[in-house]
Amino acid sequence: MDIRIGEIVASCERCAATEFAPLAPGPLRPESDVRCSACGATVKYGALLDQIGEEAMRRANQAIDELKKRPKR
């Protein structure tokens, strides 16, 4: 499964793959472990959500910077 919010997809820090598998049955919680389907690295689900949040903030800040560069009307 990929872990995404909108069009931002979490990726493995080790190999940049985007497919993960839960290590235990049941709903995913921030403390749940998931495994990268490509390289087998284990990571907390919450860390992947944090990664998505950081990317969202980066994109928002970039959009704000672009708006600031526009000439004033």
Structural write-up:
Helix content is 34%, strand content 19%. The chain is α+β, with helices and mostly antiparallel strands. It has one domain (4-69). Strands 3-4-5 form a three-stranded antiparallel beta sheet. A two-stranded antiparallel ribbon has the order 1-2. β4 and β5 (42-44) form a beta hairpin. The termini are far apart.
What is the makeup of the main sheet? 3 strands, antiparallel
Q: Strand order, main sheet: write it out.
A: 3-4-5
Order of helices and strands: EEEEEH
Count all strands and give the number.
5
Q: Which strand-content bin applies to the residues?
A: 15-25%
Quickly describe the structure.
By secondary structure, the chain is α+β, with helices and mostly antiparallel strands. The protein has one helix at residues 45-69, and strands at residues 4-5, 8-9, 20-22, 33-36, 42-44.
Question: How are the SSEs placed, and which strands pair?
Answer:
Elements: E1 4-5, E2 8-9, E3 20-22, E4 33-36, E5 42-44, H1 45-69
What labels would you give this structure?
73 residues; alpha+beta; two-stranded antiparallel ribbon; 1 helix; 34% helix
